[in-house]
Design brief:
Blueprint: H1 3-14, H2 37-47, H3 55-67, H4 74-80, E1 92-96, E2 102-106, H5 107-119, H6 124-129, H7 131-142
Antiparallel strand pairs: 1-2
């Protein structure tokens, strides 16, 4: 093999593969859909022992958990912790608001927010509306 041929083969072997050469597989299945129904029912019963579990309720919980909107429901918070892909930053919680913005807060602040929401559920639609409203409520909690 001549040096020029060797160099060309080396360059070819070190070349990064092109996107059309790579078998790209997109994971589209939401991990929340993989939570076993029995686990979901168990978590809901744990936090809401008097609630009748129906298929509609189960689907409602799956939708709420996926939506990532703030909620005072402790069952939703526990179900969200089951998805390791949701841990964008360690010890932080991510929320997606109605305006499409994403807000990330510490778990400590999340606990305080959940306490506020359980005591004053009327605040929930306000903080879900926009990041400005969410930040306003958080700033009031910090006072």
């Amino acid at each position: 093999m001549k040096y020029r041929d060797f160099r060309a083969s080396l360059s070819e072997s070190l070349r990064a593969p092109q996107p059309d050469e790579i078998g790209v597989v997109e994971v589209r299945e939401d991990l929340y859909d993989l939570i076993p129904e029995a686990t979901l029912i168990s978590v809901v019963r744990k936090h809401h022992p008097d609630t009748k579990i129906t298929n509609t309720l189960i689907e409602s919980y799956r939708k709420t958990v996926k939506g990532r909107s703030p909620t005072a429901d402790k069952a939703v918070a526990e179900l969200r912790k089951m998805n390791p892909a949701d841990a964008v930053f360690e010890a932080h919680v991510e929320y997606r608001l109605d305006d499409g913005q994403v807000v990330i807060i510490s778990e400590e602040m999340d606990s305080r927010l959940n306490k506020l929401l359980s005591e004053h559920p009327i605040v929930l639609p306000f903080i879900n509306e926009s990041a400005d409203n969410f930040v306003y409520v958080i700033s009031k909690l910090e006072e």
